[in-house]
Design goal:
The protein is an alpha/beta fold. The protein has one domain: Rossmann fold, CATH 3.40.50. The protein is built from eleven helices and nine strands. It has a five-stranded parallel beta sheet with strand order 2-3-1-4-5, sandwiched between helices. Strands 6-7 form a two-stranded parallel sheet. Strand 4, helix 7 and strand 5 form a beta-alpha-beta unit. Helix 3 packs across helix 11 and helix 7 runs parallel beside helix 9. The chain is globular and about 60 Å long. It starts with a helix and ends in a 6-residue tail after the last helix.
Length: 285
């Protein structure tokens, strides 16, 4: 009797979703899916690891890369991002993040020229995504923002026409911390110029032009990332009746470069920016 009903018994068990081991099949599948579920950061990192990216920078760019590398190591899952020099990139193909530095601090046009020369000078680079970053030290209270931005825009637009196979992206200018000492508070009260405030205004003006003119390209708004505290509040100051962003004090030890917390915030935002740039989205971060 038992033998004759065995096929029926098996069918009932299968319909109830019970495996021969006594565990529901649905539960087994859920456990399997849970093991492979990835966080948004891990998904973005997987995309970035498949791209060929060129990043030309100095100073804070190194801090951004430090944050990316730390997060990549924490989410490796058996794979890691290849960060290589220009020479290594020329010698090898495949997915890499190409780390290049050139030009001189305080002379932003030399950095723009270096970026253009790098793209034009080596056909074997073949990046999918390319971008450069100016530094906070490239701006001071006397910077001619219109002249500098026009030079940047004309250079990038020329590169776009020459290299249609490359997607060009942009990075806003990093900020400096607003000084809060007694001397600077008195200066503000009596209307005297505070160098760091005035320089941050120039950076904001350049960044606004960048966002307005390249809205269809990926734009990494590192300035906003730097100004945003961990609780989401924006670090700002008032000048001339307007509000401007400054570097959140908890992200720096020297007023300009990023500490570990700042590197982590910048790295997280940079990974999302890179992934979206490689996927072909036009978005600002």
């Amino acid at each position: 009797m038992v033998e004759t009903n065995r096929p029926l018994w098996l069918a009932v068990m299968l319909l109830l979703g019970v495996s021969m081991g006594g565990r529901p099949a649905a539960a087994a599948n859920f456990e399997k899916e849970s093991r492979v579920t990835k966080t948004p950061l891990a998904v973005d990192l997987a995309t970035v690891r498949q791209g060929r990216i060129l990043f030309s920078h100095m100073s804070v760019g190194t801090d951004i890369l430090a944050g990316i590398k730390r997060l990549d190591a924490e989410n490796a899952g058996g794979k890691s991002l290849r960060l290589v020099s220009l020479q290594e990139a020329v010698a090898s193909g495949g997915p890499v993040l190409i780390d290049v530095s050139g030009g001189r601090n305080g002379e932003p046009r030399t950095k723009i020229d270096f970026f253009a020369a790098t793209i034009r000078g080596e056909a074997r680079l073949k990046p999918n995504l390319a971008f450069m970053k100016l530094c906070y030290v490239d701006f001071n209270p006397r910077t001619d923002v219109d002249e500098l931005f026009n030079y940047y825009r004309s250079t990038v637009e020329a590169l776009k026409k020459e290299h249609r196979e490359i997607r060009f992206a942009h990075v806003t200018v990093p900020l400096m911390e607003q000084p809060t000492g007694l001397k600077w508070r008195i200066y503000r009260l009596i209307g005297r110029e505070v160098w760091e405030d005035a320089a941050n205004v120039k950076r904001a003006q350049f960044n606004q032009r960048l966002q307005e003119n390249f809205g269809s390209d990926p734009v990494f708004d590192i300035a906003r990332v730097e100004a945003t505290a961990p609780d989401g509040r924006l670090t700002t100051f008032e000048q001339g009746g307007r509000s401007y962003m400054s570097l959140y004090p908890g992200y720096t030890e020297d007023g300009g470069h990023l500490n570990t917390a700042g590197q982590r915030a910048a790295g997280t935002a940079a990974i999302q920016f890179l992934a979206e740039g490689l996927r072909g989205r036009s978005t600002s971060r």
